[in-house]
Structures are given as C-alpha cells and as structure tokens.
Amino acid sequence: MRIDLHTHSTASDGTDTPAELVRNAAAAGLDVVALTDHDTTRGYAEAIAALPEGLTLVTGAELSCRLDGVSLHMLAYLFDPEEPTLSAERELVRDDRVPRARAMVGKLQELGVPVTWEQVARIAGDGSVGRPHVAEALVELGVVPDVSGAFTPDWLADGGRAYVGKHELDPIEAVRLVKAAGGVTVFAHPLAVKRGECVPESAIARLAEAGLDGIEVDHMDHDEPTRARLRGLAKEVGLLTTGSSDYHGSRKTCALGDFTTDPEIFGEITRRATGAFPVPGAGGRG
Q1: Which burial class, exposed, middle or buried, applies to 104 when counting CB atoms under 10 A from its CB (0-12, 13-18, 19+)?
Q2: 244 to 41, 173, 186, 225: CA distances (angstroms)
Q3: Can you tell me whether residue 262 is helix, strand or coil?
Q4: What is the DSSP letter of 78?
C-alpha cells in the first residue's frame, strides 16, 4: 500500500481542486491519500464525490498553532467536522486570514513592492488565503525566483520584514480539541529548520504527554540525520511516525507519494479515530 497523509487543494493553498487532487493521487499510484487543507474542511465534499475506485480518502486538516512564540502545524485526521468547539476554533483562524494577508500586502507596499490585494485575492481564488498566495504574487512580480524564496527574513518568514501574525491555537489545546472530536493528531514537519524557528525537542515530549499521537518524520524538509533523530525521539516518547509529500500541486516541487506512511501506522491511526472513517472510492465523476 502507498499512503500519503498530507496534501493540499485549492480549498486552502494548493493548486489542484479537491477533485483533481484525488484523481492525481490515483494516477500517482496511491492507495490512500489524506486531504489536509489549512484550517478548513471545505474540500471534503468535492473530493469524496470525485474519489476514484481503488483510492481511499482520509479526511483531515492542518491546524495553525503556536507554542512559546514559535509557529507550528498540527495535522488532524478523521475528526468529526461538525464538532462545534473545534469548528469554532478553525473559523477563528480562517477569519483572521484575510486581514492578515491584507496587512502583509501593506507591509510589502511600504517596502516598495508593487503588490496589490486584488492580485493576492486572484491567486487565492476560493481558497483560504495565506502566505503562499502572497509569496506567489512576489514570484509573479519577479521579486523572488520561487515561492520558497519568499519565505526568508527579507520577506514572509516568521519575523520577516513583511510577516504578520494570525490567530493560532495552542498545540496542547489543539490536541485536546481534536481528541474530543474523535480525531488523531500528528505534528507536521516538526524540525523543518529551513522554514524558520522550530520548537525544541522537549516540546515534542510535552505534546506527547498531552496526548499527541504522532510526528511526521519522512518529509521533504527533513534531511536523513533529522529523520533518524525524530525516529529515536518518537520511540522514546511513544509516538507514531508518518511520512507524506505535503503536496501543494504546482506551488511546490514535491510530488504526490514522494514520502509515504507505513500501512501498520496507518492502521493504528484509523483504529484510534472515532470521529470519522476513511472513505473508500467508488469511481467518482466530480
């Protein structure tokens, strides 16, 4: 089985629609794919309607969190999307995205970049607007060579010249909320230092004590020594280890299935979940 547990669609900051994503996942030879858009479940219905036969969909989300001043992302799988408390928190994060993006545009204009809100809104389309959309505007304007080039201290990295903060969950509270909604939590790319400051390994142990289920180990932003370190830490504190592409369509260089999760780990994730169940494909037409 080939299992990719971290992908994004146009419901947040990917370039594939949810329907295109599941079709592309099947074409890439995946057996299981998780849809984990940022702070939203809006892509579920379209993905399920288009789900090809032979592909199983795991519903999820990537939650924006902050611990001790450091931004981090929490993957949440198979939770009840209608559970009111977690739903309200996701809405708070989403509501903060537009004023945040507008403020980043304002900062960039002050730095002499001729970016406009209209340009960023066009790039975001119907998705939840975020930094990758602002980054793509910088690429269009020739300010940076690619999206990754915008995530530097000069531009949009945490603490960068054009960075603006947003409402984010405390990750320990996020773990609690996802558990209460019947879901499973995995800390996304926890030591991706190229993205900016990371929480210390002691924080991962704290999260494990609070009920965190796993950590994403095999990821394009982790080199081999980092992966080995994370596997050792996971064993020490009793966490599951996952692998995934963090696919964003053409917005990033990673391809569907670049990194995958062991079927036994996936089986344990599904056993722990009570809020929702994986959806088997039946030959969608969406």
Answers
A1: buried
A2: 19, 24, 12, 17
A3: coil
A4: S
pLDDT at residue 95 in the model: 85
Q: Across residues 192-208, what is the average pLDDT?
A: 91
Q: Give 221's contacts (C-beta < 8 A, 6+ positions apart).
A: 189, 192, 193, 194, 195, 246
Instruction: Find the farthest-apart pair of alpha carbons in the chain and give their distance in angstroms, rounded.
Output: 53
Query: What is the token pair recorded at 131?
Result: 């930094």
And the tokens for 13?
């900051």
Select the more confidently predicted residue: 271 or 197. Answer: 271
Sequence-distant (6+) residues with CB within 8 A of 19 are: 46, 47, 49, 50, 284, 286
Own/partner long-range contacts of 248-252 (Cβ < 8 Å, ≥24 apart) = 248/7, 248/8, 248/13, 248/14, 248/15, 248/132, 249/8, 249/9, 249/14, 249/15, 249/16, 249/20, 249/21, 250/15, 251/13, 251/14, 251/15, 251/132, 251/136, 251/147, 252/147, 252/148
Structure tokens at 43: 């892509």
Pairing label, strands 70-77, 56-67? antiparallel
pLDDT in tens, 95-150: 888 999 999 999 999 999 999 999 999 999 988 899 999 999 999 999 999 998 99
Residue 198's CB: how many other CB atoms inside 10 A? 18
